[in-house]
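Quick log. Single chain, no ligands specified.
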Amino acid sequence: MSSKPSLLEKLKSDDPKISLVRDILSVIIIVAVIGAVLFGVSGTWPAIVAVESGSMVPNMNVGDLIFVVEENRFGPLMTSLEAQAANVTSFGGYGDVIIYQPNGNSQVTPIIHRALGEINESTALEAGLANGGYITKGDHNPTIDQGNIFTSVGMMQPVKDEWVVGKALFAIPLVGYLPLHIWEFAVVVIIILIAWELYSRRKEKAKEDAKKSQKKGKK
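-> predicted structure:
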């Protein structure tokens, strides 16, 4: 009585369906490995984000892919005031560009704006704000974030340390359009895999037919 083939043996099969599953699993594994490497280097997650608005123009543009690191990695997080004193620039201006969860809400898209300064609890309360933290602003925006109304979270409060996802390290232009359209990209990849599988099957069948014709011709 023959034993059932193992999972590894099944995955090595030339069956078209198994081959397609194998290709999809390969893509998933590659993505997982890249994600693990990015997390190991950056120390935070997400390690990359895409710019979705023009609030940081001209220093960041829509479609830029931003590599994010933990806020104190490769040097401490510096506000605009601290950076000016040290004469250190980042993305065309003084002060680190931070990625933060608006009002600590992890259900909405993080904001990518520059840290101008930091205020304590008492100063914040005097200004009519709920808590102390970083004061932020988009380079292209006329006013700071704090005290303004955002449709997703209401009045924006100073950014607490625990709301900071990380700071921007560098940008790659245009590549950010890929994660902005990740579902469309995934569909395209799957279609390509299926099309390649069908093409390979037809090519293999054509070879087999050619061999059969040659054998018949020799008889």
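The radius of gyration is 26 Å.
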